[in-house]
Structure formats: structure tokens, C-alpha cells
Amino acid sequence: MRLSHRIVAFSFAFVASSNANPIRKSLRFGLRPPMRYVTEPHINSTLTFSAHVDPLEVARAFIQSYTESDYYIRDDSYTDENTGISHVYARQVFRGLEIADGNINLNIRDGDVLSFGDSFFQGSASPLVDSPWMTHATYCAKFTTRSLAPYNMPQIMLSDKPRARDRENWYTLHCTRPLVSVRQAAATDFHKDLNDPRRAVLYFMIAAHPEPLVVEKLAHGFSTTIDRMTVTYDQLSPARRAQRFAIISGLPGTVSPVKAHKAYSQIPTANGTVLHATWRLEVEMAHNWYEAYVSFYDPTAIISAIDWASDSSTHSHGDFFDTLEAEI
Predict the structure, then answer these.
(1) pTM for this structure?
(2) 3: in domain
(3) CA-to-CA distance for 294 and 297, rounded, in angstroms?
């Protein structure tokens, strides 16, 4: 069934230079939860504050009047000294776990809520246990190499258009090869502990690593690599002190330990939005810095990935992106 709103952005980026350097691999795809932005919010008369009240107190009172959901105030909330506007960010919590894409951002000045944005989960209270219907594999299945086209360029010259071979190489690097490697790894995965984040981290690296020989070694030596990786635990920020995150060392392809913690992701469906438990991963590589979400119940399924290093790297080289976008 076709949903009425756009929920998917699917994009991989690469850098291809004229001297035949390897394609720069960058996974970027994911679901967009329903969002809204209110510029003139209706404020209950009981929520009137003086100009000197702490903006965090104003934010808490507003959110509590707006939703019954649990939440915490994020550490990146701040006040702009030039405008006097406080930007307060809240993250939704469900059954003790944060909803990674469930956010409310409030703009507050002199005790008044000027505007707010909202992507809080409003759907069924029962989390989705089955595999999500949209993953890296299902994204790739929707497209062929003919779907690729340059974008985000002020002007595209004929000489800049990728050749058919470039497109085929791109698709092989981002879709064909990693999906085959993930299936190969799953056949040798004897670690079935759902609470072990190392499996999710290693499956993601098999999909994300740009070097075929490294990927092949990881896929065929999955269990051996798992055994060589170590996990320690630490607390999240004081606002989330009840939840721990894992620090995973020894993952080939990384330049620093991986951070992982459980979180819910919103999954839009034909019957409304549902929640799916995921591992939220922070993976720093030589040329990529990923925030990725991998299914908790099926760690071979990557639900979304953001490469925070992609934009600056690509623009600095003056090259183009390839994009796949779908209306679902």
C-alpha cells in the first residue's frame, strides 16, 4: 500500500577523481518519521511565565502539557546570547529506552514558547518485534544502476556525467557486494545473544567498509572477529543515567572504539507508525563517521545510516553525489 507522505530518503555518496582513485564509499539512507513545525503555538493560560524564569522550566511545563510521554532534556540545549532565544531539545523515552528520532525542539524567549518542532512518536504502544520492512537490502532492491544521477551541483557539464561503468561500480560497492557479504557472515554467525552489541557492529562494518578484501575476511571470519572484540560499559549522560552504552574495541576498520546503546526507531507503515528496537551505533572510520541504526532482533538488517563526514569531504573535492530517492 502506498503511504500518503514521503518517508524515505536513500542516498549514498562517493568521490571519484579523474586519476582513477577508488570510489569513496558513504552509506546514507533512512526513514523519516512524521514531523510538524508550529510557529505560533497555542499556549494554555496556566503556562504563563515571567521573563526571568529558567527556560528549561518553561520547556518542561510545555512538554508536560503537550504529551504524556516520558522524555529527557538533551545536553545540546543552549541559549543564544545574541538573540536571547533558548533552544531546548527534548528526546522521547519509551519503556526506559530513548526513541532516537522522537524529538521536540522549543524556541523560548522571556518565558514564552515562540515556536516548536515535533517528531514525537504518536503510534501504537506495542513495539514492532518483526524485522522492519525497510532496510539496506530493501532500499537496494528498489533500484537499478540506471536510477543513479548526479545531484546537488550548481551546474553539471556533460563531462561530469558518470559513465555506465561508474554507475555499475557504485551499485556493486554500495549494494551488491555488501549484501552478499552480510549473508555470508550470517551463515557463520554462531553468536546468537541479542544483547551482544558486537554482532550489530560487525554486520554494519561488513556493509560499510570500502575494501573488498577486508570485507571478505570479516565475513568469513565472523565468529573469530567477534571473539577478538572487547566490550566495556559506561553510563550515558546524567539525563539518561539509567541507561548504559557499550564501548566496543578491536573492530577492524575503525579508528576509535565504537559506542553502542539500545534505542527505538520509528518505522512508518501503511497502518501507522510503529517502534522497532535497534542498536544505535557511533562508528568512526578513516573517511567516514557513522551514526547507524541496526535491528536489535535481526542485526543483519541496517535500518538507517548517517555519515557525518560525507558532506564536508565531498564538497572539498568538488565532486558530485549520487542519490536514490523514493516516494513510498
Answers:
(1) 0.81
(2) no
(3) 9
